[in-house]
Specification:
The structure is a homotetramer.
Chain A: H1 42-59, H2 66-73, H3 77-83, H4 87-102, H5 113-127, H6 131-144, H7 146-172, H8 176-197, H9 203-213
Chain A binds a DNA duplex through residues 38-41, 44, 65-68, 70, 74-79, 81-82.
DNA sequence: CAATAACCGAGACGGTACGTCTTGTCTTGCG
DNA sequence: CGCAAGACAAGACGTACCGTCTCGGTTATTG
């Protein structure tokens, strides 16, 4: 869990006011992370997140149950309900965690090649275990449940898009609306291929897509 | 239910070998509908399909239960299980039914404008109640459940795509691979906008998209 | 379950209007018992009652759980909740069942010795497994829970007392108030000894008590 | 809490070896009360006892929870568990406390009328809030739980009976076995009426009972 | 023109998981 | 150390649906 996201730490009570699940610099040293207010058990938190990830891969989203997670994590059911509302919430925390470490832009000196690199990274993230499984499951479930859709968008996708548009702008030196359009032109086929066509996002395909839209 | 689809009529027993849920000509005269072998109650079948549609809109996919459908349809639970394996199966039948009447290409004399018309029709289908709700729900659920994915692809999406590629070819007089690429370039943004961005597919947007890819 | 008691048969829905759980002749031939309205499973009913009895003796009232009964009876929890409101209800049915077969007065020709015999029978019933355990548990729980008290009195104790007073009257040929007073004088020490002093109700003690109050 | 009872003061650790919860002279000056060794908070102790009493009357025995008592007393749960094993233990302390002040024999110069007075006092104690509620609840729970039965008898009822038999002897100048039999003859109907018949122990009834067994 | 077989409604059944509740233990600061 | 606060593992509670299984009561051919 990125220290800038308090999602899992201080749960539903204080209402999600977090505006940037995807921090530009998720890794900034926040000594304040030691402001680890509550007496929450870190061991239990991690055991739950890992168990959920494992069981999602093993049994699929439908076969993922709170009772199963609790049993696999060696944790009481109530400990889960104390900190998460639902299995969707748990997976969301996993998504934020994984995105924080796996969905990053190359660091500072902006370079047009950064976009290519990032799109490749995104395709790998969406298309591979376990993070991609989680994102696909949450996107799928968001079609079925408005609360999941709300959480996924305001808590993750919106921030991700804003960040990516900004990076694209600075990387290519183009205006915001152009950056957004370019990003959509690149991401739409990836999502389409993964969610609708269910075909693999192999690097060759991604390269072809990039060649179409961004000059090498 | 299109008479060329035996999905809902003679169910899981004879194993789904239906290859063209989306018939090119779903409306072929079927006096043969009297080949209606079994003593299945048409009233019950329709009551179930309608109840499922209504309850999907009312309570969402998760809140849709077999018991609820049975109660709303005034039908015994066993009557549902006799003809459908799951609520996904019921929704699938509804999808095929709705697609048969709402996702058609203009009839015969091929015309380049047909593609524009069809894409508009598709956007309207995906974006509006209740058929779009059903398709979105099934696409969402397909991310969570491989059996749903299998059913949706081999039973609907693959046939739809094959048909649409063929129509695009004849409408524009282009080779198959070009037709497929063009179709993807048009559909990917629509799916992306509907499933990921959750924005409306208004005609203005669709027109803009078409202007980008197909000469007016 | 005595056929004159509909307690377990037609459960909480039709509201307990049964006025004579303790029928004078619980065994009256009622071929009509086959007027067994619902399709309730007799096997499940008996399995639950027996399991409850066994587990009460084994683990005590507090250690008796619905889940445990369901597991021991090889029955789904919901099957128990369908027909009984609580474990108290199950025990009550057992009590009525056991009382019907074990708490009977000698048959017709009234004889002063009948009272002696019945009091001995009562002492044995109250003091021995498993029926006595059930009655003691329900009497104990009635001190803690008004609903149990209500059920036990209006559904069992009142009818028992009325029946016993009537029998005492005809057996000894005395007026009702005298019969009631005599019965109280005999039962109070038995209950006191069983519930408060927790001493055994051996036949010698009962004989002594009888000698004190009824001429041999 | 009587100072001669260390029940609540030094709890389960030193194992209850107290033989006379009901001291003949509960009020004997025990300067040793300053043996108030530990740093136990008297305020917390009293808050717990009072809260338990209040909540027993308000919600009944079953609705009485340790957490509820802790909350109502403004005390941490652990503080309760530090000093009492269970809610039964807390109620027991309350019983001893109340009995110490409400269930006393007239003082010294022995007089035959003392028995009448004491029986009236006992009936009032058993039949009225809150002390009677506690005793009835504990008697009821003793039917369900052997540990409660053990505690109630060895910790309270046995000593009470011994004391009462002794007082009866000296008050009426009769041998011990006669005193015990007389006491049983008086108490059995009271317990029977309170626990089984659930009728009020009004003074008129008690007078009638006394007239039956002890010459005025 | 019965009989016989499938369908139908109703709903009980053995199960699984839900989300809530309480228990009794443990840990973390404060005074 | 006692204490308030409260997280924790454990597990029962009562509810909702699941998918299977009778039960009688219609139809609707078919022998």
């Amino acid at each position: 869990m990125s220290p800038t996201s308090n999602h899992g730490r201080s749960p539903h009570r204080p209402a999600r006011e977090d505006a940037s699940a995807i921090a530009a610099q998720p890794r900034t040293a926040t000594g304040s992370s030691s402001a680890n207010s509550s007496r929450r058990s870190e061991a239990a938190r991690l055991a739950v997140l890992n168990a959920a990830d494992d069981l999602l891969v093993e049994h699929g989203f439908e076969g993922l149950t709170i009772e199963g997670i609790a049993a696999a994590a060696g944790v009481a059911k109530q400990t889960i309900y104390r900190w998460w509302k639902s299995k969707v919430d748990i997976l969301f925390d996993n998504l934020v965690l994984d995105a924080g470490s796996g969905l990053v832009w190359p660091t500072d000196p902006a370079d047009p090649a950064d976009l290519r690199a990032y799109i490749h990274r995104f395709a790998a993230f969406l298309g591979t275990e376990p993070a991609g499984h989680v994102l696909q499951a949450l996107l799928g479930h968001a079609q079925l449940d408005p609360r999941t859709a709300e959480l996924l968008h305001t808590g993750f996708l919106d921030a991700l898009r804003a960040r990516d548009v900004a990076h694209t702008r600075t990387a290519l030196g183009i205006p915001e609306d152009e950056a957004a359009a370019l990003l959509d032109a690149l991401l739409a086929p990836l999502y389409h291929r993964a969610l609708v066509l269910r075909l693999p996002l192999d690097p060759a395909y991604v390269d072809g897509l990039l060649d179409q839209h961004v000059p090498r």
